[in-house]
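Hey Z.,

So I finally got round to the fe (iii) ion thing we talked about over coffee. Here's the setup:
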Amino acid sequence: MTIDLHTHTTASDGTDRPAELVAKAAAARLSVVAITDHDTTAGWAEAEAALPDGLTLVPGTEFSCAYTDPNGPRISLHLLGYLFDPDHDGLRAERARLRVSRLARGRAIVDNLTADGVAVTWNRVVEIARGGAVGRPHIARVLVENGVVGSVDEAFRNLLSSRSKYYVPKADTDVFDAIRLLRDAGGVTVFAHPLAHRRGAVVGEDVIASMAQAGLHGIEVDHPDHSPADRARLAQVAEELGLVRTGSSDYHGENKVFALGTCTTSRAAYEQLLSYGTAREPLTKGDALSK
Ligand code: AMP
Ligand code: ZN
Ligand code: FE
Ligand code: FE
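And the result:
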């Protein structure tokens, strides 16, 4: 079984529509794919309706969170939530708040860039986002379109980096609140790419331990942004804290270079995660048709 538990569609900052994503997942011979768009469940219905034979869909989302060190900086981090009740009031309100905050924040980054003479317009960013949760990859595409940078990756290395003077943080959810909300909605929680240093500061093992204490179920050990040393360290953290070890591609279509199934989750880990969910089951074509 090939299991990829972290992908993005046009509902956030991926470039494949949800229906295209599930078709590509089947073509790539995945058995299980999770759709985890940033701060939204908007891609679920289209993906479910288009599910090909033999592919299982795990509905999920990637929550924009932050850890605030009492004596230190605020560190942004991502929490994957799976199989939660999308109608849970508190969780739905938090997703909506995050999506709204992405608009003001994206606009603020664009304003910072234009104030310095960089060629980018907010209207074009919104057009490219096509109604999906707006993120820096959309701004990056406009910068590529306008010839300011040669690639999305280059935009992230300088103008759009979290260390850039143009950067504006999002109004992220406190990570412990997010774990609590997702669990309250019957969902399963996995800490996404905990050691993706290239994106900004990362939290220490003490924070991962606190997250485990708060009810975190798993951590993404195998991820394209993790070096072999990062993976070895996280595998040990998973073992020590009794967390399920996952792996995934974090596929974003043309916005990133990593293919579906670049990193994968074992069947045993997947089944362990499923056993923690209390709200819903993964979907197959038969389920979609029987509704
Ligand atoms: P935002 O959510 O607006 O802060 O943007 C962060 C998103 O950009 C995350 O989903 C990342 O996966 C994506 N991202 C980070 N670095 C890169 C990169 N070098 N190329 C393309 N996408 C990236
Ligand atoms: Zn993304
Ligand atoms: Fe992420
Ligand atoms: Fe992601």
